[in-house]
Design goal:
Helix content is 40%, strand content 15%. The chain has one domain (3-229). A 6-stranded antiparallel β-sheet has the order 2-3-1-4-6-5. The protein is an alpha+beta fold. The chain has helices spanning 3-14, 45-52, 68-73, 81-84, 87-90, 98-107, 140-144, 146-151, 167-179, 189-194, 211-229, and strands spanning 21-27, 58-61, 116-123, 133-138, 183-185, 202-207. The chain has 11 helices and 6 strands.
Length: 232
């Protein structure tokens, strides 16, 4: 399947409210793909995801990333000292002390410092290249069906890693890339403050190479369990 077909199947099978979003992280030494423009103004990774689900596409070099917390985790820029030491997040009132905030940063998944040069974000249907991951933003009931799709052939349980911050950059981009497994997030303070994500929406990041198998699973359960359980 090409990306347009994969996107179309995801939209129809899951009844998505928004377009699936493709994300590719460009490593140092690689070239940016053609056909993408830089945003006019600096933009956060979470903002690029939320705009891409509505049709926008971007190539975002390091100097166009507005959030240094996200950009540093993505390997684009060095980690600011105030973030590493916990002062930045503690001053937002989300942690009891700087040490607690620093502990969150210490435990986050991240790419090697300055190992990447840009992120490319856009609707999956328009992506001519192979992305690293695909991100879905939708209702909990909608994204729930990704879980039986992921366990359909082999069973088992799904374990998700999340935190109070970095729902799109760490939880939905970096973790799926580094683990090779889907990860879900309820959203975070940053994306809920800086984007138009709705109060009733959450986020899932899926490794691109897992999508065709998941679609196969969704097609098998669509006419039976999904139809019986979904309340339209």
């Amino acid at each position: 399947m090409d990306n347009a077909e994969i996107s179309d199947k995801l939209v129809k099978l899951l009844d998505l409210r928004h377009e699936p979003v493709a994300v590719k992280v460009i490593k140092k030494g690689e070239k940016n793909p053609e056909g993408f423009n830089e945003p006019e103004k600096n933009i956060r990774h979470c903002q690029s995801i939320m705009r891409a689900r509505k049709g926008d596409s971007f190539v975002i070099p390091a100097d166009k990333h507005a959030c240094m917390v996200g950009a540093s985790s993505l390997g684009l820029v060095p980690l600011p000292a105030k973030v590493k030491e916990g002062d930045f997040h503690s001053n937002l009132g989300m942690f009891d002390c700087s040490d607690a905030a620093a502990n969150m940063i210490c435990q986050r998944s991240e790419f090697e410092e300055e190992s990447t040069i840009a992120t490319v974000v856009g609707p999956l249907k328009d992506f001519e290249n192979e992305p690293d991951i695909v991100i879905l933003v939708d209702l909990p009931e909608t994204l729930y069906w990704l879980i039986p799709a992921a366990t359909f052939f082999e069973g088992g349980r799904q374990a998700f890693s999340t935190a109070a911050f970095q729902a799109t950059c760490v939880d939905s981009t970096i973790i799926p890339i580094t683990s090779g497994k889907m990860n879900m997030s309820l959203g975070c303070y940053g994306c809920r403050r800086a984007t138009d994500i709705e109060n009733d929406e959450m986020i899932a990041g899926i490794p691109y190479q897992n999508l065709e198998r998941m679609i196969d699973s969704l097609e098998k359960i669509n006419d039976g369990p999904m139809e019986k359980a979904r309340k339209k």
